[in-house]
Design goal:
This protein is of the alpha/beta class. The chain has twelve helices and 21 strands.
């Protein structure tokens, strides 16, 4: 047993003699009475009886016991709660500390300290039990498990200082990795009675799959609950999934929000989404005890640019999981010119249009237009960066020149080989361009009339 205030012993020890002096002062000494009477004689005899002496002795012992207990309380005794006493092992103890670094450890109740801070206090008590020959190390158990030092060390104060200087952690602990690392650090190196201490809030979702079968039989495992059994009602944003992160101005963005209630009571949780610190939308979600739920929030994408979206719930003991952020890239709607001379009911232009913009109401970052090749003007080509040719007839020399100029100034062309004159059109585009346009030349088109069973061939390719 150790005492936290052993320095007070010298000052308080004399108080143990206080009941003895009280006993002496309460003794009744005989005194002369000139006119004694029968009653005073009886009283004097009673006070000097054996029963009275035993009563005084018992009261003295009880008073002494009370003073000793008070002295004991002031000295603050500490029992060896952790491990063994210094020097129990022949070559010193080997102690490994595993500290949970998950986000939940940072939860701070309204009046109290976080589990992370309480864990440091408990670790300090373990370190106080170590002697000069004892060696210690620690594992930081987060998304990845990492040792605090390369090897065990007798520098207990160094371990204490490094753990105290750790910043808050916002990761999810992988308990399996932490246990595996602890097993590898102990296996083959442990002295008799190696000690492994796990300091955590022991959330079921993290620790439910943990297995400790890999430790040596001589190792002793200690599990220290850093919450002291206190209730920690917490609500959290588990995930936020946007319908898109790149949209056009005016599009409707949907946020699929999953929230959790980690408390024994049902709650109605308000959720708010704030776009670029200005406009906001909100809603509520009813959550049962220890459950999760979903909420859909919709808002209209603002003007062109990169926007920050903050999703938040009211703060509680763990503000870090009450907010999530995402970026939203809003672009101006981009015109795409679909050139087609085929029948709109039978050609592929309508399918290309649906592929470019499959959203209801015409939303999306692309704004496709379908035009015949004869209606395409130089101004139209100058106002777009993308052109799609599908089901076109034989292109006129003027149109060929416009497309080549469009390509040479940075435009993009998608050519669907689905017309009757694609061979002639690709040759014409190649001839009009100084660098060549088509990566290949096609041979004659195979149809049900001239198909002889051989597969389609590419006459020339340059990929």
């Amino acid at each position: 047993m150790n005492f936290l205030n052993l320095q007070l012993l010298a000052a308080l020890a004399p108080l143990v003699a206080l009941p003895f002096f009280i006993h002496l002062f309460n003794r009744h000494f005989p005194h002369s009475i000139k006119f004694p009477n029968i009653e005073r004689i009886k009283k004097s005899l009673s006070e000097r009886s054996k029963l009275a002496r035993w009563r005084h002795l018992l009261m003295t012992l009880l008073r002494t016991l009370v003073v000793l207990l008070a002295l004991f309380a002031f000295l603050q005794p500490v029992l060896p709660k952790f491990g063994s006493k210094p020097g129990d092992a022949a070559n010193g103890r080997q102690v490994l500390i595993v500290l949970d670094r998950s986000l939940s450890m940072e939860f701070t109740p309204g009046s109290g300290t976080s589990a992370a801070r309480s864990a440091l206090v408990e670790i300090g008590k373990v370190l106080e039990t170590l002697g000069g020959d004892d060696r210690v190390n620690a594992i930081l158990a987060g998304a990845e498990a990492t040792p605090l030092l390369p090897d065990f060390t007798p520098g207990h104060d160094q371990i204490r200082a490094m753990l105290t200087a750790l910043p808050p952690s916002y990761a999810r602990t992988d308990v399996t990795k932490a246990v595996a690392l602890a097993e590898s650090m102990i296996d083959g190196k442990s002295e008799e009675g190696a000690e492994i201490y796990f300091f955590s809030d022991f959330q079921r979702s993290n620790w439910g799959v943990a297995s400790f079968d890999g430790f040596p039989e001589t190792a002793r495992l200690f599990f220290v609950d850093a919450t002291d059994g206190r209730d920690r009602p917490n609500t959290a944003l588990v995930s936020v999934e946007p319908s898109a992160t790149r949209v056009a101005a005016g599009d409707v963005v949907t946020l699929d929000i999953t929230a959790a209630n980690w408390s024994p009571d049902p709650v109605t949780l308000p959720i708010e989404a704030i776009v670029s610190g200005a406009g906001s939308v909100g809603g509520e979600i009813a959550l049962g005890p220890e459950s999760t739920g979903r909420l859909l929030l919709e808002f209209t994408a603002p003007e062109e640019g990169l926007h920050a979206v903050e999703i938040r719930t009211p703060d509680d003991g763990l503000p870090a999981d009450n907010r999530q952020f995402l970026s939203l890239e809003v672009r101006a709607r981009e015109d795409v010119l679909i050139v087609s001379d085929a029948d709109p009911e039978q050609g592929g232009a309508v399918f290309v249009e649906a592929a470019l913009n499959p959203y209801d109401g015409g939303s999306g970052i692309f704004a496709p237009r379908i035009l015949p090749s004869g209606a395409v003007t130089p101004a139209m080509l100058a106002s777009t960066q993308k052109v799609v040719l599908t089901g076109v007839t034989q292109l006129s020399p003027e149109f060929v020149e416009r497309i080549v100029a469009f390509l040479e100034t940075g435009g993009g062309l998608v050519y669907f080989v689905d017309g009757d004159h694609d061979q002639e059109n690709l040759v014409a585009l190649d001839k009009a361009s100084s660098r060549g346009v088509a990566p290949f030349h096609v041979a004659g088109k195979l149809t049900t009339e001239n198909f002889g069973g051989d597969p389609q061939k590419i006459a020339k390719g340059n990929f």
